[in-house]
Amino acid sequence: MDRYNELVELITKANYEYHVLDNAETLTDEEYDNYLRELYKIEEDHPEWIRSDSPTHKIGGVILEKFEKVTHNIPMMSLADVFNEDEIREFDARIRNAGIDPKYVCELKIDGLSVSLKYEKGLLVSGATRGDGVVGEDITHNVRTIKQVPLKLNKPIDIEVRGEIYMSKKTLERINEERKENNEPLLKNCRNAAAGSVRQLDSSVAAKRFLEVWIYHLPDPEDYGIKTHHEALEFMADLGFRTNPNNRLVNSIDEVMQFIQEKNEAREGLPYDIDGVVIKLDDLHDHEIMGNTIRYPKWACAYKFPAQVVSTKLKDIKFTVGRTGQVTPNAILEPVMVMGSLISKATLHNEEYCLVKDIRVGDTVKIIKAGDVIPRVESVILENRMSDARPFEFIKECPICKSPLIKKDASYYCVNEECPKKDIESLIHFAARDTMNIIGLGDAIIEDFFNMGYIKSIPDIYRLDRYVEELKLLEGFGEKSINNLLDSIEESKKTGLDRLLFAVGIRYVGKKTGKILAKRFKNIDALASASFEELEAIRDIGDVIAQSVVDYFNDEDNLKMITELKELGLNMGYESNEVEEETIFTGKTFVLTGTLDSITRDDAKEKIENLGGNCSGSVSKKTDVVIAGHDAGSKYQKAVDLGIEIWDEAKFLEMLNI
Questions:
Q1: What are the residue numbers of the active site?
Q2: 375-384, pLDDT tens digit by residue?
Q3: How far, in Å, CA of 17 to CA of 237, rounded?
Q4: Which residues, including other chains, have CB under 8 Å from residue 506's CB and lie 6 or more apart?
Q5: Do residues 72 and 233 make contact, with C-beta atoms less than 8 angstroms apart?
């Protein structure tokens, strides 16, 4: 037993020095492997001795049926984003206006997945995702496999810390090389790979992904007599946590800008992805002075680096058909890494976009990831253009069914109702997260099921249980995954009318419009029998949407599908928890301008709409009220000029009864 305890301490110490301190000289690989084998042997002979902090718990192998929910004692808040120097200086000005002479800690914004770790008497007891900030998912079985997560701290204390789980660039490259050899789909980028790995039910999968972690936040520092954030970082490092050395305590906003410039220039050379810099007030008493909004602390912000621009060759332009029949040109690119993702395709939007930018096959183009997410062709490098490059021309026929295309507004459409690609896109849209949220029915699976004849129409999704035996013969479809898919399909039947209207693909009816219609008519029969005049009279609907809805329900095929979905048990009604009685917001149009301190703009819009109001992005004679935060601009002045009622933040909160 003495030898067992000695081995646990020895290997734990070596893990800490290697994975946290980056000191590879403690033990040779051979010594480490020999000690670990010896530890395994002792635990095999004496399972009653196994300690919860044994290094063997890092290996993985726990398989869960589902993730349990975890309520955070202290909410895991997001950070407000800033995008330029002016916004950073505005952040600094708000702090100085509160009477604070600030010092800041600048840290790297790691592109990964937030995690909360809890310890009791120095032993790891749980790990959880951020979730919605209040409730996350229990991923303890997976965080135990991360070598930088200590199972036992250097002191036997109760503590919670928070950090970021990530995958290094080299690890992603190595895993993708293996997956390529095995003809498996490649992992898209480090962040998605890390998030997907952490949410594996089988911890052995997570263990093979070699995830890493940086710890950066102590939620309750006052419990440990800590006065500053910088002290909290040192305190957590002393306990055995891995904190990122790329942080700096600075005395002015000019030094903040210098740190940002340095790290932006150095980001490509880092072994992991970052997408910005986090700026935090150092003095924890100042945190209390500044306080929090509903979602964000006012004592910190996250500067997002500008989208990265890279150059590559435009190999071809392919045209795809969407669910409404809209045909979109897409750039087929020489694969290039942009912000950690391998990009080989980007949208070209429509004919006008291609003509204005004069995009031609064979051009060298600049690719940008808008908001670090969506790739697009930004411009053409004209000096690299080949002399025989042909000007862009939009195709005349549908690329799938060869039917003539019809131009409506700025886009071309395939109006052939029998076009099979439109059917596939309609199915993909119906099952998506923002519509019916059918988990397990992704794009590629829908396309496979369509081609196999299992799902040819939307109602067929709810008849997929007829093909259980056939599905069992498909690679990747075990009994458990099939049951999970069928359960998700069954659960989607409960989805209300608002999302169903978006899901079935009524032209011009998106998420917001679907909700407006559902709130007004309450069930699909009432909506189907509504006249053009009734629909047009609804605020935010107008004649174009009204005509589209009328046309949809005048189509016999659409009515037949709705009837089938009814018979299959889908919810065709709408129930709302929102306030239905008349309020001061009901029927009025509001415009938000400037910065609100106690509520985010998105939350403010949601509250206004839930109370019967409407939000607009511009001030006009139809505007009823302008809500002005500090630093309000031209919208405020226009409201004054037009004599429109103006509320400050205090008046707005009073009307909300906050």
A1: 109
A2: 788 899 999 9
A3: 12
A4: 548, 549, 552
A5: no
